Write the structure tokens for this entry.
Amino acid sequence: MSTIDTNLEKLSKSVMDGDIDTVKFLVKESLKNGVNPLEIVDKGLAKGIRTVGERYGKGEIFLTELLMGAEAMKVGMEIISPEIKKQKKELKKVGSIIIGTVAGDIHDLGKNIVAALFSAHGFDVVDLGVDVPDQKFIDKVKEIKPNILGLSALMTSTIPKQRELINLLKSSGLRDKVKVMIGGAAVNEDYARDIGADGYAENANDAVVKAKTLVVSP
Amino acid sequence: MKPVLEFLSTDEVYEIHQASLEILERVGMKFENVEAQQILRNAGIDVDSKGVARFHSDTVEEYVKKAPRSVVLRGRDPKKDVFLRNGRVTFASGTGMYVIEGNKARKSTYQDCCNWARLTDAMKNLDFSCEIHSTDMPSELTDRYNFKAMAMNTTKPFVGSSLSKAGIFDEIEMASAIVGGKEELRKRPIWWAGYAAISPLTWSENACTVFKETAPYNIPAFVEGESVIGGTSAVTVASTLAQTNAEALSGIVFNQIIKKGRPCILNLGFTHPMDMKTCLALHGNVVAGIVAAAGAQLARFYGLPSAAWMATDSKTPDAQCGYEKALTGLIPALGRTSLVFGMGQAEFTFAVDFAKLIIDDEIVTQIRRTLDGVEVTDETLCLEAIERVGIGGNFLSPKACETFKFIPKETTELTIGDRNTREKWLEAGGKDIGKRAEEKAKEILATHEPEPLDPDIVKKLDAIIENAKRNLGRKA
């Protein structure tokens, strides 16, 4: 194995360990050594976060370890992104997502975790926050044209909003322009199907996996 | 603080102790073994023609003090040795003559005993193991077969049974073969001998023999008062404690006379309340737990280790089994009982259930967490993290990363219980815990290989058993 490969291997391991300082160091070091930034992402950062996600999916690690991995990935990407632009290279685009908690609901723990993971997996994430007015979702979808709209609602009293928003997308002529994913403690697969959402995920990691399939599907 | 559950005030502990002394002086304790009677007489204790020994308080107190404060249960692997310390709670498997499979029970075999030992070897919460009986072997020899099965399939300390004097000698030989000779056995007694008094107030022929013959090797003695509450002891917990304590104390006095400084365990926790309608001795009952916890308090008063039994009267891994196991495990554990037996136990103490062992391991995970209590330090208060995360944030973020190291200690993880959403649960087959545990037990048995016993030692064990078989034939 070459020194470059060894370093990238170490980088992916550091992402897995959530070791932010080492990630910073190794990314800078690799760039200094002239390694192609896209390769640093592909063989280092992205490989690390994928493994973390898989291990989380298998129940081998805690949520905090997943999130530390995501944070390490994010820090690495912050260093590498300007370099990618400078070299006029383009990162293989994974997709874009607008995410927010629906009007009347201010819970954001789950939504923030999902946003962090999407970001770590290379999605462009626009987080509209909590208690987001219906029209704001619609306006942002028009403006950004994301692949996915993620609607979070925790309470049984606010989950009907998810249905309303899907109907609003229809009446605004946007429903076929964006895939809708829903999440929150009170919703499930059946409910998602019932209200005409494209996807539902059990947890943050599943959400990313599901979103990736939605992005490539027509 | 680490929680300690106490059922007796300091004064009450003293009062029960005095009541036990009064019983031993006024009523006395019968020793059925003639040699034992003579040993007691030689020590200056008054033993009448019927074998009833009456003890003076000062004699009892003098001899009980000789029992050491430090008791170690030793395993084939020294790393698995269990040091019984004040406040430390350890857990062991149950025992039985039947194996439960689904809603049926069948007699346990030598192979079952091997598998049982192997499964207990794999359980992370199980500190030491109890045999189940090889009922497919000649009944006079099952103790030797059980011993071999246990020795071969677990490196943890284990408890055997001794059915006869010849059995004891053979088991001493077997234990010596494993540790490398009798001298080594004195240093590392990897085996321990237990016997219960026959309530009310009798030490049987066999109990005296077991204590006597195992004494020279300093093998820890498990001295038990095991009354049936309401049947062989009065129905009140207070009286049961006074009587079973008297029984166990007299056993400890006998053990200290024959071998000063022999490690002893004062066990009042195998006492079972009687069902006043059916006459059955109940095991999965909170009263048994209360007696065990109060018994542990008495044992601590003498500076000795104690024991209890987490049990259920249920026949299947059902809801009754779950709540009885949790209660009869948690109450003695919170009472800081040194040894809690019964993991995998079912149907009184008749049977074991491999699936239940898996479930009980998880119950013990929860019990251990309860015993750890609440740790309050500058570090565990996490004030800096609270400040950094701030209002409206969350503690899963890297801002709180110094708190993550507490996750394994502060939270509990289930390995067999279900914490999934309905969808995930259905996806995994929608099975109840009994079914999942059964599958897990099979999976462990298919993969777990304990450190094997040296083949030369196995040959020695086989030779001892063969010899016992020949002797048995000669007798017949």
Strands of chain A lie at 96-101, 124-127, 148-152, 179-183, 199-200.
